[in-house]
Amino acid sequence: MSDAAKQTDATLDSELYKKREKLYPREVHGIFAVLRMLAMVALLGIYYGLPWVSWDGHQAILFDLPARKFHIFGLTLWPQDFFYLSMLLIIAAIALFMFTALAGRLWCGYACPQTVWTEIYMWIERKIEGTSKAQRKRDRGPRNAAYFGIKAAKHAAWLLFSLWTGFTFVGYFSPIHELWTNVVTWNLGPWETFWIFFYGFATYGNAGFMREQVCIYMCPYARFQSAMFDHDTLIISYDEKRGNPRGSRKRGTPSADVGLGDCIDCGLCVQVCPVGIDIRDGLQYQCIGCAACVDVCDDVMDKMGYPRGLVKYTTENALVGKPTHLFRPRIFVYIVILTFVSAALAYALLTRVPLEVDIIRDRNALYTETDQGLVQNVYNLKIINMDDKPQRYRLRVSGLEGLNVIGQTEGIEIGSGAVIDLPLRIEIDPIALKASSSEIMFHIESEIEPEALSIDEHARFLGPVMR
Q1: Angle at 49 between CA 275 and CA 346, to 5 degrees
Q2: pTM, 2 dp
Q3: Is 60 exceeded by the pLDDT of residue 12?
Q4: pLDDT per residue over 49-91, tens digit each?
Q5: What is the model's pLDDT at position 299?
Q6: Which among 35, 200, 314, 410 has the fewest CB atoms less than 10 Å away?
């Protein structure tokens, strides 16, 4: 092995196995900081607020696993509707790919749960412990009563917020008003208790301690994002031509007068980075695209009297003087696929009938002949009422002239989410059969809402052919 390869392996090993050094990201103000704060407030507001919203007499968002009901505002879905969830996941994946190709790690910087919860935990930390400088000084100072008192207050606030997060998470699967009553009376079941503490402590560990380690080492998105980048993808980058050579100088000193670039080498872009990288080293997979370095650099440029944009959202093409193409073939392909799948999902939901019927034909015998000389087929119908209220159904069978249905065809009562087995026998004069296999149709409709709840299912009727 060459010396260069050995050095590369040694560097890789040191990066992978070195002890984590705690980061103290400096608070930053600016347009992108405001956008991150707005995104955090909006997303956390939705997460913590939605379970308390009522809709048509039930919780607006409730995944009721024991009852196998999934309430999403006015829509009630069942396990049989997993198809819609699959389509929704496909839409989310395509949207993620499209926005990544268009604007880089926009999801990571503004909407990822790890980023959002880390932001709120860092905000709590600053309110209790002070600025990043004060935090670093305290951690390097003596372990006295004041140190432990402040740390205890911070962790107590973190733990309370974490448990509230776990409580809210369980509130999406168990009616939250009942859950709150059970918490107050300490009457929680083992399932609810486990998930409140599990999800709460997972949030406490990820947002309070692991933070950037989740993004760098655990998240797979950081590893395969480069496959979706191209030279026209928006990235956060440092303008080397303008900034180098770097060096300090007095405020207001023109760069040309001292033979330096616009970068004053203050290091603030590193101090505000939540993952601890130096954006001046070029595009790195650790960068989550939060734009904190853009805000702080623009602030420094304002103070120095230099133009903004030394660190900015740009593209690789723009950095080398080439034109940037925002809408390019791959973006149009993503848009077309996203539009098609979204339209298909919308159509499927709008035309969805909360009724499902499976027709199982008796396979023990192709057909039987009765004492009256009629040909008989036996069927078993599994009828699933996926409506959110009980229904009463009626059944008609058509397709062959003169067929006779033996079994219940009126007043078929099925509870909400219930499944019944309905055995039926169909008889017909063999003279009416034109082929050994004929198509028949089962029409099932609600006696209460026939226009909204009706379904047609096809089956085969087997018998001899009279010559």
Answers
A1: 90
A2: 0.83
A3: no
A4: 999 999 888 899 999 888 888 888 888 888 888 888 889 999 9
A5: 96
A6: 410
Q: Which two tokens stand for residue 400?
A: 């062959």
Closest CA to 379 of 394, 368, 390: 368
Indicate the domain borders of the chain. Answer: 17-352, 355-462
pLDDT of 5 higher than 70: no
Quote the CATH superfamily of domain 355-462.
Answer: Immunoglobulins (2.60.40.10)
- Rounded CA-CA distance 355/31 in Å is 51
Instruction: Give the C-alpha distances (Å, rounded to integers) separating 257 from 238, 244, 263, 295, 298.
Output: 22, 14, 14, 26, 21
Residue with tokens 């900015």: 312
pLDDT at position 327, please?
A: 84
Mind listing the pLDDT tens digit for each residue in 409-431?
999 999 988 899 999 999 999 98
**Residue 233 in tokens:** 């993808």
